[in-house]
Amino acid sequence: MFPSLEINPQDLVVDKSDQELQEFFGQLRDYLEWSEEDAEQVVALGALVAHQFPAMVDDFYSEILRHAATRQVLKDEQQVVRLKQTLQLWLAQLFGGVYDLKYVKARWQVGRRHVLIGLDQTYATAALGRLRIRINAAASVAFETAPGHLSQALRSINKLMDLESAIINSAYQLSFARLIELSAKQQMQQSERLAAIGQMVTGLAHESRNALQRSHACLETLAMEIEDRPDAVRLVQRVQNALDHLHTLYEEVRNYAAPIKLDRQAVSIPKLIMRCWHQLEHKWKPVNSKLRFEMADGLPCDGQWDSLRMEQVLTNLFQNAIDASGDQGEVNCVVLPAPDIAELPPADGLPADRPPRIMIEISDSGPGISIHPPSKIFEPFFTTKTKGTGLGLAISRRAVQAHGGEIDVVPGSKATFRIVLPLVT
Length: 425
Ligand code: HEM
Prior knowledge:
Blueprint: H1 18-31, H2 36-49, H3 53-66, H4 68-71, H5 77-94, H6 101-117, H7 121-142, H8 147-225, H9 230-257, E1 264-268, H10 269-283, E2 290-295, E3 302-306, H11 307-325, E4 330-337, H12 339-342, E5 357-364, H13 392-402, E6 406-409, E7 416-422
Parallel strand pairs: 2-4
Antiparallel strand pairs: 1-3, 4-5, 5-7, 6-7
């Protein structure tokens, strides 16, 4: 949910003292008219339905694994095994009859933990609902011959599950609010840091420009002086290239660190893509790689984007694709509706509150990306090439994010970059 944040779980501890938690629990119990008799009813029911706990836990996790939104927060099979044991324990405590401070704290921890793993709270509520249905069904079977006892037992267990839900929800909300606060703070710190780096580098680039120009002038004079010595002239050219590289580096760091102000205008997507490709053809005549460009039928053709920024992004991706494909390689560029558009039945149109988004995928015929995790390549100064500053993809990501979009590597054997971008703000 917040992939770029590094949050220490302790930072999410919301200041609720033991006394406050106890008071909070007391209020909830009053509200729901929870009594000692309810506790006894729950314990008695627990003895009758405990043999169903393993089936309930299996059902709980098979449902979680069936849905992408819940499955994606899980790491691996082992974690599921561990979580199943945790849920068994949770059920045992639910029917355990001891509803003290330790109990409330454990429930509070569940809400907090779910924020950290990026679980959408809706699913925890739905999962609790599903568990409630299973428990109610097990109770109906257990009290088949004693309907009077059944209604009392159901009332008590449902009160307790409402208490659970209230505690988990409350912890979730507070921790989520704290996470938003921390995220805003971290983003602020990061932009302040970038602004400071930007200022410093701008100053440095400015001061160095004169020195670089002087060096270039001296080297040109030197090259003329020694023109009869080709080996020495080649060395001078290498120094000149190194100075050019230094200049490019300054410019790119400045570009990366400077705040982005978008100059949005209507941009024709197919024209933009072809312009970027032709620019590279013009620069590297002849480009041996071929571009195969496709755009899905019926897609809007224009985006409200900063044309120069998006040109920079696409040119950078095309350049990388050409480098990776080698001689006679093929570069594919496909423009598709972003998944949330594609999922909608055409007759429904788009909901007013969701801006339409498109997806641009660029893939090459090279050997693929062997970096783990592939997202590392968006980190500043990460490079596998001998040339370049290692800032190209980091700058591209910033530009795409400034447009409200995202750029990622698509998992698979080929190198495929995917940009998902709103067409308008
Ligand atoms: C009835 C609703 C749920 C209950 C009672 C529940 C219970 C728990 C408990 C007791 C923990 C351990 C908390 C700790 O002490 O750190 C936990 C953690 C976790 N829960 Fe849930 N959960 C529920 C819903 C879900 C759902 C729908 C998912 C979806 C995938 C989920 C995924 C996880 C994960 C991934 C962890 C972290 C486990 C770890 O640290 O490895 N939970 N949950």
